[in-house]
Design goal:
Strand content: 15-25%
Oligomer: single chain
CATH topology: Glutaredoxin
Mean pLDDT: 94
Largest sheet: 4 strands, mixed
Number of strands: 4
CATH superfamily: Glutaredoxin
Length: 79
């Protein structure tokens, strides 16, 4: 599973990265995590409000800091 965190370095963006990494540690397995901070790449996803969460190329959330449980649910729906 490829997970991308869209954001230019704001606190919520950094916090979402921590939450995503905690979720991955909890479920195990191999998942790649990439932090995307290039505004052009973020706009290519159609995201206007960060942080954004993209799982395997599909935007799952924008503009809010997700909880661990919310990230796990989004990962489970993909798995």
């Amino acid at each position: 599973m490829k997970i991308e965190i869209l954001g230019t370095g704001c606190k919520k963006c950094n916090d979402l990265e921590v939450v995503v990494k905690s979720a991955i540690a909890k479920v195990g397995g191999f998942h790649s995590v990439e932090k995307v901070d290039d505004p052009l790449k973020i706009m290519n996803y159609g995201v206007m409000s960060t942080p954004g969460l993209v799982i395997d190329g599909v935007v799952k959330s924008t503009g809010k800091l997700l909880s661990l449980e919310e990230v796990l649910e989004l990962m489970d729906k993909k798995a």
